[in-house]
């Protein structure tokens, strides 16, 4: 009987000892709490991880959004601010007075050309004036005789025809001499000084000392452009617009262009003219955009990508960098506060958007989104890889 009671006492002591271990003996190791686990569609990061990953968060707000028409174009001069200079006479270049890049005023000398056309034009005019005077005298004399019935009708009409031909020849010679007077003419040395047609910069020069040039008024000649004078402070970009988009592009629409030479630069201008007719082959209309070009980066004949903004409005929008495609879904990431341990919560939010390539902002539907909500604008690729 005593042995049975002793066994029971020992069993009770063992049970109490085991309970003390379970309740937390001061010498027993502590049990580690379980780590927090984010639910599906969320990523939790510490502030240090966010900084190291360069994740950028911005509040969503109303933006100036628009639909964008993308097309191709070509940079060109404003036609009223460019002059293409040809020589009116055939001859030899004896002096070049204007250098490339030099600014000139209207009428400033560009080059001196020695030409036999100068003497020929002066001689032709003198001869034409003399012939006209002689023909006029004959005509008046024949007219007086005809009125007195002292000459035949045939002689009178012949004198009248000769007079008219002489007057026409005089007018032709005078007109040619007048065209040559656009420059400085020296009849003695038979030299012609080529003037600048407008104020601007010498952009092109296609001649050298001693070169032979062809006159643009000589029949059968193939004149070469000698100088191009123009201004580059403002330039045009001529683009093609499909018939479908014509009604969407009013005059004054905002336009931007990009060129290969400066891929990170966006030039801003506006539409100032739309053609009144379509090209019968391409079924497109020309549209002209004006751009300020004070730094001279846009140069004539550059090809450009043109984006024309239409249907501008205010809407909740995010930058393109905030939109991410995961599988068949288009999503953005929003910040949803912090966890009890201080981690930042980032949640995936599916959206339906129209990602126009030329638009700076992507409008998002208001469903589930409010102004001021924190949107991830940089780092969406990293967050999508952590899901």
Description:
The chain is α+β, with helices and mostly antiparallel strands and 387 residues long. It folds into 4 domains: 42-65 and 315-386, Beta Barrel (conserved putative lor/sdh protein from methanococcus maripaludis s2 fold); 69-78 and 231-312, Elongation Factor Tu (Ef-tu), domain 3, CATH 2.40.30.170; 82-115 and 190-229, OB fold (Dihydrolipoamide Acetyltransferase, E2P), CATH 2.40.50.100; 119-181, Helix Hairpins. The protein has 5 helices and 22 strands. The protein has helices at residues 2-22, 47-52, 116-147, 153-180, 380-386, and strands at 42-45, 56-59, 61-77, 82-85, 91-96, 103-104, 109-114, 184-186, 191-195, 200-205, 212-213, 227-230, 234-242, 254-259, 262-274, 284-292, 303-319, 324-326, 329-338, 344-350, 361-363, 374-378. The strands form 5 sheets. The protein has a 6-stranded antiparallel barrel. Strands 8-9-7-5-11 form a 5-stranded antiparallel sheet. Strand 18 (324-326) and strand 19 form a beta hairpin. The longest helix has 32 residues, at 116-147. The protein starts with a helix and ends with a helix. Residues 9-14 and 16-26 have low confidence and may be disordered.
